[in-house]
Design brief:
The chain has an 8-stranded mixed sheet, sandwiched between helices. Strands 10-11-13 form a 3-stranded antiparallel sheet, with helices on one face. The protein is 40% helix and 14% strand. It starts with 10 loop residues before the first helix and ends with a helix. GO terms for molecular function: L-aspartate:2-oxoglutarate aminotransferase activity. InterPro entries: AspAT_Ic, PyrdxlP-dep_Trfase, PyrdxlP-dep_Trfase_major, PyrdxlP-dep_Trfase_small.
Length: 428
């Protein structure tokens, strides 16, 4: 193991190492690379796993439940598609609504309806608050933060550990501030850390409705619920059932999709909620839509066959993703396995590896990597308002590039971390 331990070097050795690293930097700068680890997009090979969706209906547009999918109607989706989504989210079919292709759209619509109209009558609308606020476990998903900014919802960061959000902090904030109307959660293989919430954390989140102000909602973005890399990764507890057991099922909205399962731009999005929440959501959705794309829903039902078919499909994704994640983790372990220069997560699923530099260095690493032709997610993107107060976190997204390109990108990333760390130590 070629571990990087600059703390063991004296000033002269550090200066010599800096010259060596700068020389390597200039050599790589002339290589003219163009590599991108910014977003968790499926690779072309992953998308090709679903190519047989095209033409799978062979002119038969009628579902087993008797619906002519070419026509209007069916606001909450085909029963067969709802059954698949229910198993993916571990809820009852009656709890599910199928939307278009994007769960992000369903989340945005849910915020819109809650903010403008209320999910429990006009008086419950968040716009009535002087300032509506959301809790945001960090590091987290930048698009969640963008939704809040679009509605001028104030975001409050709360830290996470390997079990999920620090619930003592979450509960304290909610109990003492009635303007907090929601919390964002990515509970399984979280974006970007890859951690999965423990049963205790799920139970405590399920009970938040009992201590929160009226009209509080947990936004449970279970985007990676079935996206394992390690097939033995433990499942997470069902939040909706836990909330029912706690007597506050109306405080929970759950979301998921097949956007990274089949075609990213033509999958199925779904949500699960209490009957009361679904009724409120459909009341407004029904004004904006006469019904979703049921032809696409039927295509997915025929393609998977059943939930076992869906899980078998996810095994194929895992086989393509694992070598990419292994390339990232191998580079990190080789160069920083016995070093305090960098820490990282080792996810069992999802689409990201989260790394933390020493304090104050993330933006420098990202800028250096860009000079060498490697695009990384901007430093701070995993925090509300793009502001990581310690300037440490970087999200690596290895799903889209080839393994060879990831290996090259990680060579550059490793060099930039080393050079930024040595520069900082010499500047002290």
């Amino acid at each position: 193991m070629n571990a990087f331990n600059p703390d063991q070097f004296d000033q002269n050795a550090l200066q010599q190492l800096q010259r060596q690293l700068r020389s390597e930097f200039e050599t790589l700068k002339s290589a003219g690379l163009s590599l991108d680890l910014t977003r968790g997009k499926p690779s072309a090979d992953q998308l090709s796993l679903s190519d047989s969706l095209d033409g799978i209906l062979a002119g038969n547009y009628k579902s087993d439940s008797g619906t002519d999918t070419r026509n209007y109607g069916g606001l909450d989706g085909l029963p067969e598609a709802k059954a698949l989504a229910a198993q993916a989210l571990d809820v009852d079919v009656s709890d599910v609504l199928i939307g278009g292709n994007s769960s992000l759209t369903l989340m945005y619509q849910s915020i819109l309806f809650a903010y403008m109209f209320g999910l429990n009558g006009e008086a419950s609308a968040w716009k009535n608050e002087t300032k509506a606020k959301f809790l945001c476990p960090v590091p987290g998903y930048d698009r969640h933060f963008s939704i809040c900014e679009d509605f001028d919802i104030e975001m409050i960061s709360v830290p996470m550990d390997e079990n999920g959000p620090i619930m003592d902090e979450v509960e304290k904030l909610i109990a003492n501030d009635t303007s907090i109307k929601g919390i964002w959660c990515v509970p399984r293989f979280s974006n970007p850390t890859g951690i999965s919430y423990s049963d205790e954390v799920v139970d405590r989140i399920a009970r938040l409705g009992n201590i929160a102000s009226d009209n509080f909602r947990v936004f449970w973005d279970n985007a990676y619920a079935i996206h394992h890399i390690n097939k033995d990764a433990a499942p997470i507890k069902c939040l909706l059932q836990a909330a029912r057991d706690a007597g506050c099922e109306d405080s929970v909205l759950m979301f998921g999709s097949t956007s990274k399962v089949t075609f990213a731009g033509a999958g199925l999005a779904y949500m699960a909620a209490s009957a009361k929440n679904l009724a409120a959501f459909k009341n407004h959705l029904g004004i904006a839509s006469i019904g979703p794309d049921k032809v696409n829903q039927l295509r997915h039902v025929k393609f998977f066959g059943d939930f076992d078919g869906l899980l078998a499909h996810m095994d194929k994704h895992a086989a393509l993703l694992k070598p990419r994640f292994d390339a990232v983790l191998s580079a990190l372990n080789t160069h920083f396995g016995d070093s305090d220069a960098l820490t990282w997560t080792t996810p069992e699923g999802g689409y990201f590896v989260s790394v933390d530099t020493q304090q104050g260095l993330a933006s420098s690493v990202v800028a250096m990597a860009a000079e060498l032709g490697v695009k990384l997610t901007p430093a701070g993107a995993t925090f509300p308002y793009g502001n990581d107060p310690e300037n440490r976190n970087i999200r690596l997204a290895p799903s889209f590039p080839t393994v060879d390109d990831i290996t090259k990108a990680m060579e550059i990333f490793v060099l930039c971390v080393k050079l930024a760390t040595v520069n900082a130590k010499l500047a002290d």
